[in-house]
Amino acid sequence: MIFAVIGTSSWNFDRLIKELDEIAPDIDESIVMQIGNSDYIPKNSEFFRFKPKNEVENIYKNADTIICHAGIGSILSSVKYNKNIILVPRRRKYGELLDDHQIEIARKLEQIGIPVVWNIKELKSTLLQIREKKLNIGEERIRFIKSLSEFLSDMTILD
To answer: Which residue in 16, 54, 55, 58 sits closest to 35, CA to CA?
Structure first.
């Protein structure tokens, strides 16, 4: 299962939700989307706006791949459950956030090997590529968690 999560922001993230819904028929895996305050309603995927934290955690546990905004909470949950991660940072220029702090987070994580979709039309190809790779328990995961922890300790804005 692929789980797309956009967090609890009051801003919509139609750009991600719409693109993922459009490519859903071409993906041979179920897709569940947390659409929050987005206006676009998926036609090809299961979705919900918000659920209690424990229910969302269960979806994380059952997913193979997480597609998420560059929000720290979503990233940490993905790492906690050792999931494939694809980041799609929210962008101010699209009216998805007040500022571009998620770009800084995404750039740093991209440097340590986390796939980032900068052009939404590349989501499908990135998804197909990442499904073949997975963060491994062991040295790679330890390195990733250490890098993420160091990065977070330097951050002043978290989500």
So the answer is: 16
